[in-house]
Amino acid sequence: MPTDSDTPLHLCLLGDATSPHVQRWAREMLARNYRVSVITARPAAIDGVEVKKLTPVRRSAQWLLRVGEARRHVAALAPDILHAHYITSYGYLAARCGRHPLVMTAWGTDLLVTPQAHRWMRWLTGWILRQADLITGDSASLVTAAQDFHPFCPVHEIHWGVEMARFRPVAWAQKPGVHLVSLRAWDANYNIDTIVRAVALLRTRLATLDLRLHLLGGGTMEQTLRDLARSVGVGDIVNFHGRLDDAGMARVLSDAKISISVPTSDATSVAMLESMASGLAVVATRLQANAHWIDGQWLVPPRDPHALADILEQLITAEGLAEQVGMQNASRIASDGDRSVQMDRMHALYQQLMNRR
Length: 357
What we know:
Blueprint: E1 10-14, H1 20-31, E2 35-40, E3 50-53, H2 67-77, E4 81-85, H3 87-97, E5 102-105, H4 109-112, H5 119-129, E6 134-137, H6 140-147, E7 155-157, E8 178-182, H7 192-205, E9 211-216, H8 222-231, E10 238-242, H9 246-255, E11 258-261, H10 270-277, E12 281-285, H11 288-291, E13 299-300, H12 305-317, H13 321-336, H14 339-356
Parallel strand pairs: 1-2, 1-4, 2-3, 4-5, 5-6, 6-7, 8-9, 8-11, 9-10, 11-12, 12-13
Helix pairs in contact: 2-3, 3-5, 7-12, 10-13
């Protein structure tokens, strides 16, 4: 969908340029005839996008020291729309730049966890949000969390969506054995250790099963998780793939039957939606964002390997159950999860902002 002017609107994103989410957002808006630039403390090349680097941030407090750099880049770029991804880092920088229209997108932890850590952080988060002209979040829980800060602008639910041409079901008969997959990052919030322990329990219960666990995502806990897998007796059946591009993820998902996403805190997970679109059964944490997409019987408490193993065993051993659940998931995403539809909605919101200006 093109913009309403012959001259492309200049959209400047503040966010982590290494993130697939930011990269996808940039590519979607390029396809809609925007000029796109990115200001980032974690640079990466994105075709067709001008990337401006900030000094790397190694501690949260250092975001306070990047305001001058951010202001200089924004002034030099002079974008039509400034859009910050992640409220309590890039959102803070964008708020300090004083340029409008200003859009902010919450990612999850930035509104669901970080503001609860300190009273001053909650105050700062509220101040940041009140500088915005439009706020988006990818789940009802994030929309509610943003509204609780009483911003002066609308808050819309826009989820990341799935690239339907890439993530699609594969015939169940072509899948080898019972391959399980997690696409979540290897850090504390995502409880990958719980998944490893649950798989160890499954291996004991279903000793003759051709079982394998694929871990994608990468992260700081890699060595800890490798050591854990060896210590609980599943080191030989856990594959540590790390971060893969979309094509790599699609290849792993094509062999898998069940996807596992058990974070302690989360908004709508793109990894979960991509797993559903690929026709996998999905087991997820009992969170509001997950309950919107996943039937309650496949939701488990966080950090409970026994509960997770029980649900996985049910899906594995009941003839045809995982395949049936996977097809239901694929159908749901085909109806409600198309990324292009969500990005068309975002384009329309950008246009509304420009028209009001």
